[in-house]
Specification:
By secondary structure, the chain is an alpha+beta fold. Among the domains are: 50 residues, no CATH class; 83 residues. Strands 1-2 form a two-stranded antiparallel ribbon. Helix 4 runs antiparallel to helix 7. The radius of gyration is 74 Å and the shape is elongated. The termini are far apart. This is NF-X1-type domain-containing protein. InterPro entries: NFX1_fam, Znf_NFX1. Keywords: Coiled coil, Membrane, Metal-binding, Repeat, Transmembrane, Transmembrane helix, Zinc, Zinc-finger. GO terms for molecular function: DNA-binding transcription factor activity, RNA polymerase II-specific; RNA polymerase II transcription regulatory region sequence-specific DNA binding; zinc ion binding.
Length: 478
């Protein structure tokens, strides 16, 4: 269609490189391709071949499908084999193979066409059954060859159990037909046949009597073998507890981690009662530990006591206070003793029991005055106690005494005059209060007479009162 584009040349022209729209061979697709290349699509042909069974499946088929060359593959009338011929129309030829029908052991045989094996009864066989035993016995009881299950084994089991060394005396029970519960009939006219299944039943419990000792080793009794396990006799355990004072009251049990047959184990009862042992003399506290072996630990309770001097009330540990060697030191508060010696000075020792020690060694300074208390000197206490400390008055003291005596006399005289004036004033006030109105009119004329009469009446009592007051004043001044 197209002309060569090249210049004049020898030999044949090259491939045409022009692009043209071409239709595929099956006519379903159009595409632009080079003029020199054919165009084939990828669509598979779906037409049936001449067998009218298999599709063509050829890519871009032009309509002339090839003949079918696949095997037929249909199942033959025997139901066991397939047709080996090339794919064809119509029925296949019958199977030309044969089969054997045998008894269970396979010694007696019958030849039948293929497909008839399950429609022909197997031949009878007089040979002994070769079924392997389905129990633990090596051989079955002798019987003829047969199909189906063998009759149950009637031999003695004689198998030993896991927890027992005695042989089982019952008949073999490894393959026993047992009824299985099935769904009940939905209507009364429907019958549901009972179904059975072969099962291996366990051996029955061994009943051979066996002597068994209880867990706490209290008694021995005969029990059936399957129940022959150490058990509790429900008596009290009776083992001695760790406190060494009480016994275990739990029912008979297996004792663990016990050093001997008397001591209690780790799983025995734990004594929770209080300690009842006697306390040391003087201790009024209860032991804080529960019941325990041996002696009680030292009492650590705090005790409030009075020190020797009675000034403080310290808290001390009970055990230390009860120790006679430590008690004087513990009861001492450490402060200076507040008591005084017989000399009147304070005790120099720390807080102590009993009388103050070393009273004769007191050497505190004591001030001693002379009789007039003008001169003072300091002496040690021991000299004062022995009456060796004396202070005498000097000439100055005597002069001072005389001057003081003169002053005192002058003072006393002045006081007497003042008291006389006070007494007169009090008498005048007393008279004014108890005189009547009539007497007041004649007061100017009768004042002198009444004063004289009053003095005459009360002369003695007034004089005694004045003398007593003067004596008291002079006594107080000295």
């Amino acid at each position: 269609m197209h002309r060569c584009v090249l210049k004049c040349h020898k030999d044949k022209c090259g491939i045409c490189l022009e692009t043209v729209e071409k239709q595929c061979r099956c006519g379903q697709h159009i595409k632009e391709v080079q003029c020199s290349k054919p165009f084939f699509c990828e669509t598979k042909c779906k037409n049936l071949r001449d067998c009218n069974k298999h599709p063509c499946n050829k890519k871009c088929c032009d309509g002339n499908c090839p003949t079918c060359e696949k095997p037929c593959g249909k199942t033959l009338s025997c139901g066991n084999h397939k047709c080996a011929s090339v794919c064809h129309r119509g029925p296949c030829y019958p199977c030309n193979l044969t089969e054997f029908v045998t008894c269970f052991c396979g010694e007696t045989k019958l030849t039948v066409p293929c497909g008839r094996k399950y429609k022909v009864k197997p031949p009878k066989c007089n040979l002994p059954c070769k079924h392997p035993p389905d129990c633990h016995h090596e051989k079955r009881e002798s019987h003829r060859c047969h199909f189906g299950n063998c009759p149950p084994c009637k031999q003695i089991c004689n198998r030993t159990r896991e927890n027992c060394n005695h042989p089982c005396p019952n008949t073999c029970h490894d393959a026993v037909m047992v009824k299985i519960e099935t769904a009940k009939a939905s209507a009364p006219w429907e019958e549901v046949k009972p179904q059975k299944q072969k099962k291996c039943l366990p051996c029955l419990d061994c009943t051979v009597p066996v002597p068994v000792q209880c867990l706490g080793f209290h008694e021995i009794s005969n029990w059936p073998c399957h129940l022959a396990k150490p058990g509790s006799c429900f008596r009290p355990c009776g083992r001695l507890l760790q406190c060494q004072n009480h016994k275990c009251t739990l029912p008979c049990h297996l004792v663990e981690d016990s050093p001997n047959d008397i001591q209690a184990g780790s799983n025995c009862e734990i004594c929770e009662s209080e300690c009842t042992k006697e306390r040391p003399e003087g201790c009024q506290h209860q032991c804080l530990k529960p019941c325990h072996p041996g002696k009680c630990p030292p009492c650590k309770q705090m005790l409030r006591i009075k020190c020797h001097c009675g000034m403080l009330q310290p808290y001390v540990v009970c055990n230390e206070f009860l120790n006679p060697l430590k008690q004087p030191d513990i009861q001492s508060c450490g402060n200076q003793c507040p008591k005084n010696y017989d000399c009147g000075h304070r005790c120099r020792a720390d807080c102590h029991p009993g009388p103050c020690p070393d009273a004769e060694l007191c050497k505190k300074k004591v001030k001693i005055f002379c009789k007039c208390k003008r001169i003072k000197k300091e002496f040690s206490c021991d000299l004062v106690r022995n009456n060796k400390a004396l202070v005498d008055c000097d000439m100055v003291c005597t002069k001072l005494k005389e001057e003081t005596n003169k002053k005192n006399k002058a003072i006393q005289e002045e006081r007497k005059k003042l008291e006389e004036l006070k007494n007169k004033q009090e008498l005048e006030k007393y008279i004014k209060k108890f005189e009547g109105k009539k007497k007041q009119r004649d007061k100017k004329y009768q004042s002198e007479d009444k004063n004289e009469s009053f003095l005459k009446r009360y002369y003695l009592p007034l004089s005694t009162v004045i003398i007593i007051s003067l004596m008291a004043f002079t006594f107080l001044s000295y």
